[in-house]
Fold this sequence. Notes:
The chain is α/β, with parallel strands linked by helices. The chain has a domain at 186-335. Helix content is 57%, strand content 17%. α8 packs across α12 and α19 (524-536) packs across α20. The longest helix has 46 residues, at 339-384. The chain is flat.
Amino acid sequence: MLDNLSIRNFALIERADIDFEPGMTALTGETGAGKSILLDAIGLVLGDRADADSVKAGCDKAEIVARFDLQQLPEARQWLQQQELEDDGECLLRRVVQAGGRSKAWINATPVTLGQLRELGELLVDVHGQHEHQSLQKAAVQRDLLDRSGQLETELERVAEAHRQWREAETRLRAARDQSADKQQRIELLQLHLRELEELALQAGEAAQLREEHQRAAHAGQILETGSDVVGRLYENDASLQAELARCVRSLDELKQLDPSVSEMHELLASALIQVEEAASGLRGHIDAIDADPARLEWLNRRLSQIQSLARKHRVEEEELVPLAERLQEEYRQLTLDESGIEALEQALESARGDYLATADALSARRRETADDLSQRITAVMQTLGMEGGRFGIEVETQPEPAQWGARGRDRIVFQVSANPGQPLKPLTRVASGGELSRISLAIQVILSEADRIPTLIFDEVDSGVGGGIAEIVGRLLRQIAGDRQILCVTHLPQVAAQAHHHYRVRKQKQEQATHTQLEALNDSQRVEEIARMLGGIDISEQSRAHAREMIEGALSRAS
């Protein structure tokens, strides 16, 4: 759950510190007040991309910090442990954006990549946007919504892996069958390359080790001379640092008997003496290990020259020669396969295709089960959203042609709707109006959020396109979902805002030199004023206030 959000110099917000509670929180304000800025700030700290416009004009950086309680988020806690990030039941996300657009991110005070921040963000918050109904007509979106509703992640992973292996088997067989006119020439060239690489016998990581050894061997004289001089100064000379420190330690050892206050200085010098002796010993051992053999240096020169020459010949980095040899060996093996090898590849392909079909069929069966359940549940919600007698259906059609099969199975998913009683189901893209799409999208989001394991949900004006009694039902649905989780709802409808457990108002303040957006937690009386404003506009009448009180009290009475 999101406990606190701290914003500094973000867009039009100079400073905001917001404590969030469980239940439903309404975020309201006049059009253009900056409600979306708050959601942009949350999105940024969850891994959205940043730009220079994120920083408030005249400031050098923007900073957003979000604190989450992870008690109900075992998956997030497991992710933090896997990433070796501290987890004590809370999680602190921090994002700083510079005026130039560059940004840095931290999780629990540890610097992380934007990808890591986004991965964790997907486990902490689920966002339902106001424009989701616009993408509802896309086949891929419909398929993903069905899979998400059925929690088919495991089945999807199996199908994707089976599809990958099937395609790889196809590729291997195609390569084996693709016998071009210059096959023998290519084989001979590969034999030459492989013979050179085998003669080189380069091991993984060897080039870097050889360069390091060559660096020492080439400067062995300087290393020995300088190292010996330092060892002498530290330990071996009559007036060495070790001898002087030892005398000082002995003197302070006697002095601390007379003046105990010098004990700390005595300990420091004694420690320094030990470190000097260890440094001298270590340096002496390093010098003794230096090999100034000219023959070894000559061998290193030849070996490195051979490696560099082959790397230039194949136009790769020296470290890539080992994997290059493996790739060339595999290519050589494929080109020299006999007929029995091709038969084995054909059998492997048929087996991989069978595995794919089996996993894809299992996914299709689960999709059909999910489609029946989801259709019924969405239909039920549609009845409450002013579409009485309407029906929702999901068609799962398995495609017969292999060209239509993919890593997400071989099904074509079609959302269908009948907006009026007695009418047959037809594809959503052909019969639903904009308002109907908005309501159907809301019904889907409500159903999906009920099964969502993430305890913090954000609804960004998902009530767009509805009003009156339907708006009140939308508010009740959101309040119902908030019974055991946290809902943040940006809304322009008083019927929805009245259902909230908590209420924040977003206001834009214009001054001579600047414009600021402020967020204010509303008490009971302020909340009445805000909902009355949403009901009646700028001039708030007593009638509007009375209506606002009635709406709030009605929500409370139904909840009790």
